[in-house]
Fold N-acetylmuramoyl-L-alanine amidase.
Amino acid sequence: MPASRFLERLRDEGATVVEVGDWENHNRNHVGPWGPVHGVMIHHTVTKGSAHTVELCRNGYEGLPGPLCHGVITKDGRVHLVGYGRANHAGLGDDDVLRAVIAEKALPPDNEANTDGNRHFYGFECENLGDGQDPWPEAQLDAIERVSAAICRHHGWNERSVIGHLEWQPGKVDPRGFTMAWMRERIRERLK
C-alpha cells in the first residue's frame, strides 16, 4: 500500500491523523526490505508527554535510529505519522508467531527470536508509561482499534493479524494495561 493510500485508509476509518515532517519517505529501507507485510504490531512507549514521545519515535535515540514506528498514538487519540516503510519497532521475534499471523490462527507462545519483524509488521507506538498504572483513555484505545481495522480492511485481514509486541518477542510486556485478546475483539466488531 503506498503511503498516500495508508493515510487515506486511516482517515476513512475515522482516525485523527497528524502528519509529521516528510513521514512518507522517512524509513530504514536502506538497511533491509520492508515487506511482505503481514500484520500490525501494537507497542507502548514507556514515555510521558506527547511532543516528547512523537519526537523520540520519529528520530530514535543513540543505538536505535528512527523511525521507531509508523504512527504514534498519543493519549488524546491522535495518530502522528512519523515514518513509512521499514521502521525499528518489532526487532527479532518468533517465526511460529509470524506463521500464525499469516494464517490468521491462534498465536503460539513466543519462545524464539529468529525472524525480522521490522520487515513484516506495521508498527504503532502508544504513549503510555507501561507500568500497568498509567491509564489508557478511551480516545487512545479507539484510535488503536481504528488504525488496526483500517490496515486489516485494506489488506483483507481479520483481527488475528493484529498482535502486541509481547506476543512477538520473548521478554517484551507491551502493551501493558489491556489485553490484546480484548483489543482484537474490538477490531473484529469494527470489521463487521
